[in-house]
Amino acid sequence: MNNHLGVYETHIKVLQEEIAALQCQKEKNDRELTIHIGGSMKDALLSMAGRETGAKTGNSLRDIRAHLTAEIKELEEDLVRQTKMNGIVLTNCSVKTLEKNSRKMVQQYRLAGHCSLLGFQVEIEVTDVQEDAAVVTTITVLNIIMDTTECKEFGKFVSGVEENRDLLLFFRTLRRFSDRCDDRHRTFQHFQKLYPGVVSLPGGCRSEIMLIQSPKLPGCSLTLSWTIEVSSGGEVTPRLDLVSKMPEQALQFDSRMAIENAPDAFQCLLRVLGVEASIQALIQSVSV
């Protein structure tokens, strides 16, 4: 019996040495992906490594796989709910440890995704510092790249966010800005399809400019500019302006100065009728 115990103790010692060597090797390698897990998924992974967790995860590989499958399904469902709520879809995520010691750890997060048709890439450096019994976490670097030309209206705001390292403000404002861009796109597309001979979008389907030209009055046109302003605090405000272009001969017959006063009259229409009804009235006045 004692001989058997001695053999078992020798095997256990060898296994412990192998585990210690593997753990040391793991610490030397940078982690490309970090997943924060908990509950049954954590218990299952620890069980696979042969560690006791106190949870009833079972000892068989089949039980472990079942726990992992259930946890992954739950995480996927939660991700779908979050996407529906905030409209932000992450397509890529990676984490790399840049520095780690007993007191400090620096990790670099790289995220890529989109909100509606607005693509983005975010690079964040997060520093965790151990101070007495607490860990202080701060964002030390924040870089944001927007993938679409539409976001020139968003550029100044992004610069301020990077300077203040306010990631939450960026994502919260991105959703509102994206919604207003989609409103503009849908409205312009609607009128272009409704009046194809009158309305055109010089900058393409995501243009901020709508050109309204009269088929019966060559040289006469109205240019509607729909920009989206973003304040440093994340307030998103659409701004619509009208510019009229008429030949000199037509201006001579405009005794009531209707052409000159058209921009101010359009602003009054916006306040009374709203955006779509005002644009409708504008197009109809030119196409009659």
Automatic annotation (TrEMBL):
Q: Name one GO biological process term.
A: CENP-A containing chromatin assembly
Recorded hits in InterPro entries, A to Z, give:
CENP-P (IPR027801)
Q: Which PANTHER family match?
A: CENTROMERE PROTEIN P
Which parts pass through the membrane? none
Q: Which domain of life is it from?
A: Eukaryota
Q: Which UniProt keywords apply?
A: Coiled coil
Instruction: Give the GO cellular component terms, alphabetically.
Output: chromosome, centromeric region; nucleus
What would be one Pfam family of this protein?
CENP-P
Coiled coil segments of this chain? 5-32, 58-85
Gene encoding it? CENPP
UniProt protein name: Centromere protein P
